[in-house]
């Protein structure tokens, strides 16, 4: 009877606790052609791992990291907890708030956080412009840009911009710290690379369907008109269901954004701002 | 060896544990680790003679491209964030909350990386792993050597032991499942390919109700299946095809071979005969050689070089004769047969999703 591959590898790594077994494997390896091959293969792998230079990851791999990370976050609802400190009853001033006695321009009203992923949500007041806003802070831009922030108690949601900021104008003077804030990552994300079109033709149209691994499906129609180019987006399915109720859709291209709440049969029209830039479509259930 | 690389192993084990504790925060580091380990595994396979599939148009970045494709699946989040990795570690009792031996976590990780890469490579058409290649080469060499006798039965290569007196030709050939059992038992009892092969034939000889020989392709297939089971890296999910799936493939191949041969005879070889490039008799021998090729290609997805099949049926011809007279018609016929055969298998609903032809 041959030892298992795992036993052979553990023996070679000096991690087999049972000495008798180790001796048996050593003796067996001297004679057995099959197990000798396993041992040789493992030794070669370890040598390759540690004796050769670690090569740089290609650019494509970094792009894949981002895509996989976004996919891992998709559909996630992340509850936030209020940070309570000794200064709870006071106004927390920021470093750039100016000297004591003056009304600071920017004031931090409340701060919430989550551990996994590590995110911080700051509720801020801009006294000069007289409006409140939220700022989401995280390790990676894609964790904070174009994500939904929900306040279930009042059935409100906001979508952050590319800097992780969203306005709270119509909620001004609310007791923000009494809400149970949560972050809702998109249910589906579609990317369209830089559009290819013939600049000599002002009139053209092209239609395509995009589908995710989870059965989310959209139809996109590109249209070029004399006055400009646009896409129409038709949401066909969400997680395999064509009857998905209401959805919030965010279409963004460079710094241009378009947000709309739609139901099943609605068609969205987005005027392309920059034919050189890619388009991202995010769906929030 | 493990001690030699202890610092690196501890460092890498730390990255794995950090990822398991806080995957979103440590994903980049973990991805880099997976990338390094997967790429080195592919390098190791290549050094051992694996012919890796070609992805994209730039051969210089091929290893990076395959690595990327494999990790795109391994680190996907179909059911939950990075569910393949988390399910795997959970299944093996590894949890970041427990204080576990770093080497055990590290070793489990290397099994996951190597096993998963192997599984994904199996799915890619045109990939033959070095272990499969080695077994086939070793068994073919052994069967060619002294002690074995080759004959052709129904167009297929059939082997018996030379020393066997009574050949029991009136009995049926041993069923594949029974053969598989014998191949597995004899694998455990032997320590070399030569002895393993001999003991398989001796065990078959003891089964009086069957013929005491085996078709070559069945012997190779069974040996590959058993060695995969015991020698390949098993990361917990199925790496290779099950016996039922292999049986379905065999049945589909059995159905497709006569159809392919009829088609080649009618559409390709007839033309060569009419133009007098080959005789009718030569055409029939070509078809028998093609049948041998289709058995190899259909059952385990790989095959020998074309001339080997030719010389089985034309043992008295030499290389010069082949190149000058038969290479073109034979290889045209075998290429056409292959395309038609693949088409039949791809459209056979009984093996959909089992093997990518």
Task: Explain what this protein looks like in three dimensions.
The complex is a heterodimer of chains A (285) and B (357). By secondary structure, chain A is of the alpha+beta class. Chain A has three domains: 5-51, no CATH class; 76-184, no CATH class; 188-284, no CATH class. In chain A, 21% of the residues lie in helices and 36% in strands. In chain A, strands 2, 3, 4, 5, 6 and 9 form a six-stranded antiparallel β-sheet that branches. A four-stranded antiparallel β-sheet of chain A has the order 1-10-7-8, with no helix packed on it. In chain A, strands 11-18-15-16 form a four-stranded antiparallel β-sheet, with no helix packed on it. In chain A, strand 12 (204-211) and strand 13 (217-225) form a beta hairpin. Chain A starts with a helix and ends with a strand. In chain B, helix 1 (6-21) packs across helix 2 (27-47), helix 1 packs across helix 5 (102-123) and helix 3 packs across helix 5. Classes of the chains: A alpha+beta (285), B mainly alpha (357). At the A-B interface, helix 1, helix 3 and helix 4 of A face helix 2, helix 3, helix 5 and helix 9 of B.
């Amino acid at each position: 009877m041959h030892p298992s591959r795992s036993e052979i590898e553990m023996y070679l790594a000096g991690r087999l606790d049972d000495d008798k077994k180790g001796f048996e494997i050593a003796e067996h390896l001297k004679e057995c052609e099959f197990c000798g091959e396993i041992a040789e293969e493992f030794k070669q792998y370890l040598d390759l791992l540690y004796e050769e230079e670690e090569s740089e990851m290609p650019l494509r791999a970094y792009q894949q990291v981002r895509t996989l990370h976004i996919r891992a976050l998709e559909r996630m609802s992340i509850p936030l907890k209020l940070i309570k400190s000794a200064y709870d009853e006071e106004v927390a001033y920021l470093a750039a708030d100016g000297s004591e006695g003056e009304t600071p321009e920017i004031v931090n009203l409340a701060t919430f956080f989550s551990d996994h992923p590590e995110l911080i949500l700051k509720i801020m007041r801009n006294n000069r412009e007289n409006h409140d806003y939220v700022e989401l802070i995280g390790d990676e831009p894609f964790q904070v840009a174009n994500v939904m922030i929900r306040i279930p108690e009042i059935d409100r949601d906001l979508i952050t911009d590319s800097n992780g900021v969203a306005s709270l104008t119509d909620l001004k003077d609310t007791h923000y710290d009494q809400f149970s804030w949560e972050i809702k990552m998109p249910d589906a994300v579609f990317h369209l690379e830089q559009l290819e079109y013939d600049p000599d033709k002002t009139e053209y149209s092209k239609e395509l369907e995009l589908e995710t691994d989870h059965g989310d499906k959209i139809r996109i129609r590109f249209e070029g008109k004399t006055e400009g180019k646009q896409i129409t987006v038709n949401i066909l399915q969400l997680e395999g269901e064509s009857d998905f109720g209401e959805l919030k859709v965010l279409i963004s291209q460079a710094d241009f954004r378009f947000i709309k709440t739609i139901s099943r049969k609605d068609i969205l029209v987005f005027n392309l701002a920059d034919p050189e830039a890619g388009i991202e479509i995010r769906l929030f259930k | 060896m493990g001690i030699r690389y202890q610092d690196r192993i501890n460092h890498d084990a730390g990255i794995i544990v950090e990822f398991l504790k806080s995957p979103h925060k440590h994903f980049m580091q973990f991805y880099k680790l997976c990338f390094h380990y997967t790429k080195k595994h592919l390098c190791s396979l290549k050094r051992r003679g694996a012919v890796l599939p070609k992805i994209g148009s730039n051969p210089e970045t091929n290893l990076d491209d395959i690595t990327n494709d494999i990790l795109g699946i391994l680190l996907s989040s179909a059911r939950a964030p990075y569910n393949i990795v988390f399910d795997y570690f959970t299944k093996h009792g590894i949890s970041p909350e427990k204080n576990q031996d770093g080497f055990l976590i590290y070793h489990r990780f290397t099994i996951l990386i190597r096993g998963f890469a192997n599984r994904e490579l199996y799915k890619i058409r045109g990939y033959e792993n070095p272990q499969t290649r080695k077994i086939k080469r070793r068994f073919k060499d052994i069967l060619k050597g002294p002690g074995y006798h080759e004959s052709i039965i129904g167009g297929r290569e059939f082997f018996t032991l030379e020393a066997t007196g009574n050949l029991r030709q009136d009995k049926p050939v041993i069923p594949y499942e029974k053969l598989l059992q014998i191949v597995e038992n004899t694998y455990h009892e032997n320590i070399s390919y030569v002895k393993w092969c001999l003991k398989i034939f001796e065990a078959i000889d003891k089964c009086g109700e069957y013929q005491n020989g085996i078709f070559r392709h069945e012997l190779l297939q069974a040996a590959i299946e058993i060695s995969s089971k015991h020698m390949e890296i098993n990361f917990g999910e199925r790496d290779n095809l099950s016996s039922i799936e292999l049986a379905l493939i065999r049945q589909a191949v059995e159905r497709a071979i006569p159809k392919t041969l009829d088609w080649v005879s009618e559409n390709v070889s007839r033309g060569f005969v009419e133009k007098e490039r080959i005789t009718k008799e030569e055409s029939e021998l070509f078809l028998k050689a093609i049948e041998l090729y289709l058995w190899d290609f259909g059952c385990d997805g790989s095959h020998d070089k074309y001339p080997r099949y030719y010389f089985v049926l034309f043992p008295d011809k030499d290389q010069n004769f082949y190149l000058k007279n038969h290479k073109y018609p034979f290889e045209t016929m075998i290429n056409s047969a292959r395309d038609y055969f693949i088409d039949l298998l791809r459209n056979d609903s009984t093996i959909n999703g089992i093997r990518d032809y």
